[in-house]
Amino acid sequence: MLQEMWEELQMGAFVCTVILGGEDQVRLYYDVEGIRHFVVADCLTEDEIWEFGIEGRSSFDSIHQALFAAELTGRDPSVMIFMDGDAEGAEAFQIRTVATEAGVSYETMPSQGIVRQAQVDWLRRQSREAQGFPTR
Q: What are the E-state strand segments in 55-127?
């Protein structure tokens, strides 16, 4: 479980900041009966709130989180599930079905593709630094 959470955080941070151009792990505050609370949104872009999950039952709450964060921010709710393979499993099918019914944008991305893209991005930045070019 801890390994899965770590992988989700790493992949989510990369997808959010590099691919979507957003801000990752943003605290969103709200008050209930005079007491301050917060939730952490996986990714905020200009127009959307993204919640990420690794394919499986642990991602069932992604739609709830996206809808609540959308209410707090006024952004459109979106969910992205990181898939282990190409085939949609039973859990991803359920998430997609509920997202569609709730009006939440639903995307999938292969986990291995994210890892490879992150490695290539890191190598490009290292090469540019070695050549004296500014990096992002």
A: 76-83, 105-110
| Measured CA angle at 100 (ends 94, 104), to 5 deg | 110
- Rounded-to-integer distance, Cα 20 and Cα 3, Å: 24
What are 107's strand-pairing partners?
80
Inter-residue contact 47 to 20 (CB < 8 Å)? no
Side chain identity at residue 43, one-letter code: C
> Please, where are the H alpha helices in 33-89?
62-73
**Residue type at 57?**
R
Is-contact 60 93, C-beta < 8 A?
A: no
Question: What pLDDT sits at residue 9?
Answer: 82
Q: Which domains does the chain have, with CATH numbers?
A: 2-111 (3.40.1350)
Backbone angles phi, psi at 46, to 5 degrees: -55, -40
Three-point CA angle 115, 41, 43, nearest 5°: 45
Q: What is the pTM of this model?
A: 0.80
- Supply the pLDDT for residue 87: 79
- pLDDT band of residue 8 (cuts 50, 70, 90) is confident
